[in-house]
Amino acid sequence: MKCTGLILILSLMTATCFAQRTDTTSKGVKTKVVDGVNMTTNQNIIQNFSKSTDYTTLVNAINKAGLVETFESKGPITLFAPTNAAFAKLPAGELDSLLKPAHKFELSNLLTYHAIPGRVTAKDIARNIKEHNGSAVYTTLSGSKLSATIDANRNIVLTDENGGQSIIKTFDIEQSNGMVHIVTAVVVPKKRMI
């Protein structure tokens, strides 16, 4: 009986030692598990998101748009990062078209519309919404406006210039060069003529 109890205690201790933590700190470096991948505060946006199979479309699009240096820069930048599933919600053929060299400007405009200058946390966004009577407006790296509100379910909702909406589903993923929030849909700026 004592032996069985000891084995049970040892197995529980072993399981606890190997349990995955969502936020850890090691020598000043924080780690957050995002969609099964460890993202650390000592790596930049590109380094962290290149590790995940859920963001291959985003990383590929950043490469095709020639924006790798932007998202590897010192920043700080806050990125509203769409998952592969979010990109899949675009109208049929739109993403394939955007990834072609002839549409590099449009792709760059779309991706920089998902980024704002500074290290902006979810708490900062919520405070800004409250201070501006329920709707905060941000100027993105593309120069276009993106608004944020809080819905009835207490979600932060981003609304693009066309009325399209995306919910922030994961908050405050710290990067060495900024902050990332995961969004449920791609936000689209108004078409600009060049």
UniProtKB/TrEMBL annotation:
Transmembrane segments: none annotated. Keywords: Signal. Residues 42-187 form the FAS1 domain. It comes from Mucilaginibacter yixingensis. GO terms for cellular component: extracellular space. PROSITE patterns: FAS1. SUPFAM superfamilies: FAS1 domain. This is Putative surface protein with fasciclin (FAS1) repeats. The keyword Signal applies. It comes from the Bacteria. The keyword Signal applies. PANTHER family: FI19380P1, PERIOSTIN-RELATED. Residues 1-19 form the signal peptide.
